[in-house]
Amino acid sequence: MNSKTLIQIILGVLILIISGLFYNYYFSQKKIEILEEEKLGTNNIEKTDPAGNIIKDIIYESRDENGNIYTIKSEYGKFDDAISDIILMTKVSAIIKFNDGSSMTMQSENAKYNIITYDTNFFNNVKMDYLDHKVNADNINVYFKDSKLEAFNNLVYRNLDLSLIADKIEINLLEKSSKIFMFDNDKIRVIKKIN
């Protein structure tokens, strides 16, 4: 083979390699981005929403510094137009798995979930279960930075022995202690179960 043919072959191979790299860089990037979006769940965007920001089957999971795991799921969600860190959820269920092996579950029709702080405002027909304790309320707020849960508005607390009607209950998620409040001078109503 003479040197002229060898140079042509090397240039041809070099052009093919550069073309392949160019194609991979500019055209396969879009495939990677689409695949990543599908993994994040944006492939579940409702076709009926003209803005394209309703997402189906949402799952977020986070862990705090004490090893407690918080998982929240919803059938539908939509990012808040005013605050980009907030997702408005519908048909919501959540679970906090504590590092001692116990767990707390919550369900509601709706919730506002902050994707940065993990703080959640559950509202509309909220139910919470923890061991033998059950809470029904219109609102339950979970604040992760403060390790605190607040339940209020039409609050009913039940355990094995009693039912309690109050305006607000605060639960410290680390100590698992609680405080019960009334907003006015009314007394907390306690109904003891008789066996």
Helices and strands, with pairings:
Layout: H1 3-40, E1 54-63, E2 69-79, E3 86-97, E4 103-114, E5 120-130, E6 133-143, E7 148-158, E8 162-172, E9 177-181, E10 189-192
Antiparallel strand pairs: 1-2, 2-3, 3-4, 4-5, 5-6, 6-7, 7-8, 8-9, 8-10
Structural class: alpha+beta
Task: State the helicity in percent bands.
Answer: 10-25%
Number of domains: 2
Morphology: elongated
CATH class descriptor name of the largest domain: Mainly Beta
Please tell me the overall pLDDT.
79
Q: Strand-residue fraction? A: over 45%
Looking at the overall shape, the CATH architecture of the largest domain is Sandwich
Radius of gyration: 27 Å
Features:
195 residues, 2 domains, 10-stranded antiparallel beta sheet
Short description:
This protein has 195 residues and is α+β, with helices and mostly antiparallel strands. The chain contains 1 helix and 10 strands, in the order αββββββββββ.
Characterise this structure.
The chain is of the alpha+beta class and 195 residues long. It has two domains: 3-40; 54-192, lipopolysaccharide transport protein A fold. Helix content is 19%, strand content 50%. It contains one helix and ten strands, in the order H-E-E-E-E-E-E-E-E-E-E. It has one helix at residues 3-40; strands at 54-63, 69-79, 86-97, 103-114, 120-130, 133-143, 148-158, 162-172, 177-181, 189-192. Strands 1, 2, 3, 4, 5, 6, 7, 8, 9 and 10 form a ten-stranded antiparallel beta sheet that branches. A hairpin with a 6-residue loop joins strand 2 (69-79) and strand 3 (86-97). The longest helix is centred in the N-terminal third of the chain and has 38 residues, at 3-40. The N and C termini lie far apart (103 Å).
